[in-house]
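Curious: why these numbers?
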Amino acid sequence: LVILYAIGMPIGYGNLNPMSEEIRNARRMVGLITVLVILLGGLLSALLFYAVSPYGTDLIGVLKHNVGFIFPYLIFSALNGGILGGIAYIISMSRIVYAMSIKKFLPLIFSAFSNNRPFNAEIFSLITYSIFLFLFIHFYGIYDTFLFLGGLTVLSYLTISISASFSLFRISVKKLWKRKGSVTLALLSAILSGAILVFSMQESSPIINYVFLGWIIIGFIYTELLEMISKEKN
């Protein structure tokens, strides 16, 4: 699990991508920030876990007993980062809901704008996020909720990574001789992400795997139903 979540920590760039339309010079900035988050986040995560490995895997206990008076400040920093991270996830989710509404995967009511913001999508995302989070914490506790949602998030990101790799391969293979590097990168990324996904599913609890695979199946069925309805209307 330590390895699984070490891989999963530097994935904050996923919150940025759905908001690319609101970023100036998005083509350059989104790519730059994505690379920086992966490299810097991965480096800091690896440094942290290697540094505390001699003391065990209980990170909170290690910090509490080995950093002395700095511990309260670290906890405050972690809480602050957690709150900001939660807000970022809600905003990111609202933009995804808005995009799905525009493309008619969700009701058009979620594409309504208010003060230059997708207000309905934001309210829906906030309510959905809060309900699921509070229900999980109430029935399973904070620790198990963290493990479940963290594991599910990592598996989802790996699936997105595989999908993006195949998309890059499909685009690059049309001009194979000019884009050999991109084709090679796409194949290596797909293989690596697939291997990590398999390893992660082996280390995850069965319930996480069931929910993850069930969500993919439900999404596939939902997409097929929408396509059938669209064909009947046409």
